[in-house]
Amino acid sequence: MATSIQGTSAAVAAEDDIPIPYMQRTRDYYLALGYDNPYRWAHFVDVPFTPLGTPLERARVALITTAAPFQPDAGDQGPGAPYNARAKFYKVYSDSTESAPDLRISHVGYDRKHTTAKDINTFFPLVRLRDAVAAGRIGSLAPRFHGAPTNRSHRETGADLDELLRRCREDGADAAVLVPS
Amino acid sequence: MGLAARHLEAHGIPTVIMGCAKDIVEHCGVPRFLWSDFPLGNSAGRPFDPESQAQTLELALRVLETAPAARTTVQSGQRWSPDASWKRDYNDLTKLTPETIAQRRKEFDVVKTIAKAKREGS
Prior knowledge:
The complex is a heterodimer of chains A (181) and B (122).
Chain A: E1 3-4, E2 11-12, H1 22-32, E3 60-65, E4 68-69, E5 93-96, E6 103-104, H2 126-134, E7 140-141, E8 144-147, H3 154-170, E9 175-179
Parallel strand pairs in A: 3-7, 3-8, 3-9
Antiparallel strand pairs in A: 1-2, 4-6, 5-8
Chain B: H1 2-10, E1 15-19, H2 22-28, E2 32-35, H3 50-66, E3 72-75, H4 98-121
């Protein structure tokens, strides 16, 4: 629990109230599973940056997710399902932002103890983005949202990224909101 | 997802990532990142709480509009719970039984087999 320093109103956070070290835990996890080749994440010297060129109230915004479309023949996909490798997808997919897609996250390593995944809006903000359009906060949504595959080799990831870019351009997106689940 | 943000950004489309895994996203290096210190699976706000979700999205949009440079991270002020005990549970290896480890390994091998077949078929 938080405490406070005498003479101030500032609450001091608990010692273990820090960002979870996911990378370390994932490395340890794969070692515990018996894989001795430590998991590695790509990282880069430089980071690209493009200023927002169109004011948001006129911009067309794309939504990109790692959530997977429900596949009736791929076993338990939750909510609350155990990790389900069969529910993964391996190609970029797109669907209409006018639809109410049935997306699941049983194929990724989310926190199953503290997340039930019963509410799609907690990992896929399509409805909230529509609200933002209705409120005039953003101009419009791109006609499609896009699904980005996880668990890919470097070569395949490159092709997936080109495909995502191609679809965003085709949709005339001025900006993109990306939501990993 | 970090790679996707970087790729779009490098080709002229500004991006913002809404996420929970701070170290992984920042390690990659991304243009703009709204971090919620929530359990994985809640990048867009608290479940069944439209107000939390709307605030999370609004903050992400503000990061999209106002980030001065790449590698901008903003932390949402929302807290998952008054104490941080939930953070101890994720992938807690001391809680894995040999049976669980065997089951998880089996699942992981399924992924590798499928991914290999997809590669060879493409």
